[in-house]
Write a structure and sequence with these properties.
Blueprint lengths: L12 H13 L9 H14 L5 H15 L12 H17 L5 H10 L14 H4 L2 H5 L13
Length: 150
């Protein structure tokens, strides 16, 4: 199911930390908030910011960031809860399975892994359910397979 894509990889830990801090501070340019940046920030939050309850705060963090750069969080654009929660589960699974150490090497390995693929949530969700308004607005359990737990 995964389509072939070449992720933009990171060269330095500082770049990943800057993405995470920029997300928290709403200080990133909109164009910096790419698929790779989402995953890098998630891995950084889970591994380097144990003071942040990712499950409780991720939705508000991303919504607030989107709005800070002029974005809208509505029924068709902006924050998507089910996709975000699927990727958080995927990053946790990756972290439980990887032997990689170091922030940059872990993020780059994640981006090259099945969990880093742009269509990874479609292993668990039908397209119709995943792209529904209800799945965008709140977490909807997958209809094809349960999300993995580490």
């Amino acid at each position: 199911m995964t389509t072939e894509y070449s992720p933009r990889l990171f060269e330095r830990d500082e770049d990943i930390r800057a993405l995470g801090e920029g997300l928290l501070a709403c200080a990133l340019p909109r164009e910096a908030w790419t698929h790779e940046a989402h995953l890098a920030a998630c891995l950084w939050l889970l591994t380097e910011r144990p003071d942040i309850d990712v499950d409780a705060r991720i939705a508000d963090m991303i919504r607030r960031f989107n709005e800070s750069v002029g974005g809208v969080n509505d029924d068709t654009q902006g924050y998507h809860d089910s996709i975000t929660r699927a990727y958080v589960a995927g990053v946790r699974l990756f972290l439980a399975e990887t032997a990689e150490t170091g922030l940059t090497s872990r993020v780059n390995a994640l981006l090259r892994s099945p969990m880093g693929a742009r269509d990874w949530p479609l292993r668990f969700y039908s397209r119709d359910l995943l792209f529904s308004v209800s799945a965008r607005r709140g977490f909807v359990p997958p209809d094809l397979a349960p999300l993995p737990a580490p």
